[in-house]
Amino acid sequence: MIDIQDILCVLEVAKEKCITNAAANMFLTQSAVSQKIARTEKELGMTLFERTNRSVELTEDGMAFAKQGSHLVEEWEQFLAEMKRRTLKKEQFLTIGMHALSIYSDLPELIADFTAVYPNWKINLSTHSDSFKSIQNGKTDIFFVFTNTENLTDECALSQISLKEDTLCILLHEADVLASKETVETEDLAGYHLISWNTELMESFPEELGITLTVCEDSFLPSLISKPGSFTLTPKSRCEKILQQYSNLRAVPFKSKGIIPVLTLYLVYNSNRITAENHPFLQYAVDYYKQQEEK
Q1: What's this model's pTM, rounded to 2 decimal places?
Q2: Which residue of 13, 71, 185, 192 could cross-link 22, Cys pair, CB 3.0 to 4.6 Å?
Q3: What are phi and psi of 245, to 5 degrees?
Q4: The CATH number of the domain where 234 resides is what?
């Protein structure tokens, strides 16, 4: 049976007058396009193209097929657009997990832009401390996380999309001696007090530096840096908004072993519940950060 892809192949070859170019435009092999045309001609019992050494031209039957086929493709596209509009009218729900400090990032703007374009989508925000477990047990649908770990979902049977890269900064009190430095290196933090929501972060610092740790919810981190000698780590992209609210803090690029660590913002989701190719929010997030990168 002839399907819409067969019709599209005939129309593309008719436009290009070349099977090779048509195949490239449709991301198909030349043999696949030739087979579709041959199958269509056999089923209809007519020849659609006159083939020469240099090009292919529509026959009289081919012209009639192309004319009717163009109408069918147009109607098919209108049908798909109407079905999409009907889907968009249905109320949809999405729970997004993120760390509380994400309020200082561009994620609120991303979510606001998305809901303006897709007003039927209702977004719930969550700040579960165990982001991967919250997706696995269905408490969140997706989660945004900054990390320098690749393949972070290997052990969790989840999927991830890389959105953007960022560097790491140290947040310090303005009176701290390190606040005036161009960069802060690991060794500079000897005897300092780390404030973090993540206990594993301590493993990044050699034990001989004598760094101590206070664990708290990340939403409180900036407010706890009330005097010199305390610090926290955060992606550079969050610093501008944090410093607008906490004018007593300073952000300094952080170096570990002479290198400024590069972080990646990942969107993590459960592929058993969400299909990335067809999900409006996932596609919108990818396009949003791609446009930011191009600016």
Answers
A1: 0.63
A2: 13
A3: -90, -35
A4: 3.40.190.290
